[in-house]
Amino acid sequence: xxxxxxxxGLDVQLATTIGNIQGKVVRVSExxxxxxxxxxxxxxxxxYGKTQDFFFNNGMITQCEEERRKSxxxxxxxxxxxxxxxxxxxxxxxxTNLQKKIVNDFIINFNTAYxxxxxxxxxxxKEKGTGKTMLACILANEIMxxxxxxxxxxxxxxxxxxxxxxxxxxxxxxxxxxLLILDDIGAESTGRDNWTQKIIYNLVNWRYVxxxxxIFTSNFPIEELKEDDTTISRLERCIPISIPNVSIRRxxxxxxxxxxxxxxxxxxxxxxxx
Length: 274
Hints:
By secondary structure, the chain is α/β, with parallel strands linked by helices. It has two domains: 3-72, SH3 type barrels; 74-250, Rossmann fold, CATH 3.40.50.300. The chain is 37% helix and 23% strand. It contains nine helices and twelve strands. The strands form three sheets. Strands 2, 3, 4, 5 and 6 form a five-stranded antiparallel β-sheet that branches. The protein is globular and about 65 Å long. The termini are far apart.
């Protein structure tokens, strides 16, 4: 993998194999003694919080390009290390051959059939926890690994908040990355007004006009979305992927808990409670 040197500083997004830490640097200080010189950095890790200080020799970190792209992507930590081998379509208990063919085609022919034309995917199911977000993130991870492109993840409510807070640098990055995951579109529709409708349309239309592929996920089929008609007309050009209404999140949770309990049951340990 291609390696690069990154200077550790405030607000730098980084990924390191030290404890598998991925996050943003929020505090730095210089350190030097008789043997070494470098930077101490505190890192804010999503869904974890701030870490202890980590030492970086000469204030630099060697990071492979794939890790760097992942650290900038905003993909949730639980999905950052997921790839196609981690997604089991058989858990749905239904025929998903067409869905598998579509996602395989998206990966294999991304540069020729999707990147050039801006062709997008719309992954939907009415049940929560069916693996829509996980599948979208896996596709993005594999595309980043194979083709070395930029990718961003944002859910629809965060998208609205970015515009509301005038975080224009983040907005521009979201608009212009080669591949965007817009997660849970339609969830922000409660209490919607014309201004928020316009935000979603402007993002969807900008990426459509500029031929930037997007992976949308939703709990609604396109025809049931409470979006502006012009937004719907753009989304109707996506390739729809219907996910069976089976909560694989719940199945995975049961499986993980059972595996943990079975592991405890098989251990020989001190009998504290008798």
